[in-house]
Amino acid sequence: MTTFFHILWFKNLMFWKISLKQDFGTVIRNIGSFIVFGSFAVGAFYFSNFVTAYLLENVRIGLFLFHRFVGMLLFVFFITINLGNMVVSFSTLYRSPEVHFLLSSPVSYLDIFTIKFLDNFFYSSGTLFMVGFAVLLGYGVYFNHPWHFYLLMMFGVLVPFMFLAGCIAVVVLLLFMKLAAKINFRILIASIVLFYVSQVYIYFKVTSPINLVQEVMKYYPYVDLYFGSLDPAGAKILPNFWVSEILYFYVQKNFGAVTGYTALLVLSTAGVFVFSLAIANASFYSTWITSLSLKSLTVKRFQFKSSFFTFEKKSLLSPQTEVILKKEFWQFIREPSQWVHFIVMMALLVIFLSSVSTLNIKLESPELKAVVYLVVFIFNIFLINSIALRFGFPMISLEGSAYWSVRSAPISPERMYWVKFLVLVLFLGLLSLLIAFLSNIPYLFVRRVAAEESGILAYITPHIAVKQLAYFSIIITPVVAVTLASLNFGLGSVYSNFVEKNPIRIASSQGATMTFLLSVVYLVILLAAYYFPTLMMFNAEVKNLPVDWTALRIVFLVITLSSLCIAGITHILGVRSLRRDY
């Protein structure tokens, strides 16, 4: 372990040496980053405090439902961390030149694995800790929790929760690479994707948030009671359920239950970490050898196999545009971490859309209907932003050290910039239209509903106000998607890094984190602006009030104009950054 600490010390020393040599522009940029991070933390605090107060005081969903919704969000959070760590760990453990160097040095395989695993986890988790603390602070201030609540939640709950997700990710990765030597690589990839997709589908099918709301609301106004009998047995073994129980029982001052669930989470995390180290000690080197054969097979496949969209085949596009498009296509295909992550994200998106397109919401409260609608709407936008950040932000940086050849070629940097952006914005624009349409199906078409007691089928026609709201949402979603694509792509050019080869690490860098925070601020403002007309439309539906379209049209116009301004500013910054001296 002495060598292990020497390596960590050497990496930290190099980091500080590089940091001390930063120029004035970099210092200014870091100050700006600090301001953005601090502003976001303050905003996250107030937003968390406001949402908690609104749901409990205005919508009155009750403590049990509120914490179950928190648990569902934590499930999505857990899966996101798990998948992200798996893809990043594949690149850093099996494709990193640093690992190749360390394997030739007198360092044990277990130390190398531990160094790279911890490096991945802390590299990508710093911002999440900050955001998590800000959200917890807003939540805790609402309930007037004491200071030790925050220590418990940050270091006894949130850190073990995130670390558990990372440990499970590397365990699955090691088993996956062990099987890769015996099973066809494509079949293995498909199995992993199918496994995660089925887990998400089964979870939301079993927990069914809409059914849970309907069951709890039968006991209104006694919604603060504990309805543990409504929880499926399978959900109780999941870490997100333990965290939601810790939060709920802390509010109820049942500290025995809080201690029990916290101990269960911490011990489970420690056990899985030890288990991952045991598997790594036995199989890391052999799986690394397997990864070399997989890499050679991949290179041979794409180097010698004739396929469509090759550079030899001509198209109707201009030569400069054609070569950039083909380069982007093959640059994406040749990197497994790119298309594997893309397939997983698309599969999860399909499950989400198949669920929301068949929603049958039987709620009487216009406030609760508005909240459900806005949650689906903003989650759609968040998915689009996640794809833009993951694949759009690194596009300029992926030119790598060969960017000098692009600058010296007979092609303007502006053309390269716009062709790359066109690829991103066309995909996200079409995807956003599809997402918006499918998620608004329950509000656009006649629904067939069976009565609970008699079982007689009834046909429900959407109210004109809700239908118009759905049309506005379908129109405004692509506008927001173009804005987010511009924000991520333009700032990806401003914060370009031609040294880092891993696209996932580029999408987790400081510049990417700043871009993500700015995107979230934009989404919060969008949500705040869209809330009032949404509530008006559902009030008109439930209470049969006359519809006033003025507010909806004004909000639509404001969102569109401000979004176009944001897109324009980021593109100006992005194009100007290409003229820097690299």
Helix tally? 20
Provide the low-confidence segments as ranges: 1-21, 296-304
Summarize model confidence as the mean pLDDT: 77
Q: Which bin fits the share of residues in helices?
A: over 70%
Major sheet description? 2 strands, antiparallel
How many strands?
2
Structural class: mainly alpha
Query: Which descriptor suits the 3D outline?
Result: globular
Q: Over the alpha carbons, how many angstroms does the gyration radius reach? A: 25 Å
Strand order of the largest sheet: 1-2
Distance between the termini: 40 Å
What is the chain-wise order of helices and strands? Answer: HHHHHHHHHHHHHHHHEEHHHH
Quickly count the domains: 2
Strand content: under 5%
Q: How would you characterize the overall build of this protein?
A:
This protein is mostly helical. The chain folds into two domains: 28-305, no CATH class; 355-452 and 463-582, no CATH class. The chain is 78% helix and 1% strand. Strands 1-2 form a two-stranded antiparallel ribbon. A hairpin with a 6-residue loop joins β1 and β2. It is globular.
Quick recap:
With 582 residues, the protein is mainly α. It is built from 20 helices and two strands. The chain has a two-stranded antiparallel ribbon.
